[in-house]
Write a structure and sequence with these properties.
The chain has 2 helices and 10 strands, in the order ββββββαβββαβ. By secondary structure, it is α+β, with helices and mostly antiparallel strands.
């Protein structure tokens, strides 16, 4: 198993905003527009653009604890491949990263939207009875935006430490 700390997004945005969702908070560039839905909050520099960050929340059937990690990894790998198949994407990389000091799974996908090559990074963070999907998407030719690293570094679920 590959273990890395942190993830991408080398440049730092100059200003940021706290983005609150139902049971979580994360940071995004200050000038990005935030859109809220029942289980997802998205921030993007332009509506319907290729670049965005988002957090979605799902309820787990059973409470998650770190001792379940070995059983959870193959399950998350399967979820990532199903997500990729739905989007006609390819999983280019998978790895274990630390978010808030806890093991999380992260996947890099390659996909196409209206003929444009896109990259998408999905990080699964499990906490108690909740699954958080932290998503960052960008146009491949533009390179990874700083907002990707900001999303993962500044994400925090309600009730966490």
């Amino acid at each position: 198993m590959l273990l890395i700390v942190g993830c991408g997004g080398g440049r730092q945005p100059e200003r940021e905003q706290a983005v609150r969702g139902n049971g979580f908070v994360f940071a995004a560039p200050a000038e990005w527009t935030v859109v809220r839905a029942s289980r997802q909050v998205t921030a993007a520099p332009e509506p319907d653009g290729d670049t965005l960050v988002a957090v979605s929340i799902f309820r787990l059937v059973n409470a998650y604890g770190p001792e379940l990690w070995p059983a959870v990894v193959p399950e998350l790998d399967g979820v990532a491949h199903k997500l990729a198949a739905r989007q006609r994407a390819t999983v280019e990389a998978s790895r274990t990263v630390h978010v808030l000091g806890r093991r999380s799974r992260q996947y890099d996908l390659a996909l196409s939207r209206d003929g444009r090559a896109l990259k998408q990074r999905v990080t699964f963070f499990l906490f108690r009875r909740r699954e958080f999907q932290l998503l960052c998407r960008w146009r491949a030719s533009d390179g990874e935006p700083a907002a990707c690293g900001l999303l993962v570094r500044r994400f925090k679920p309600a009730g966490f430490g």
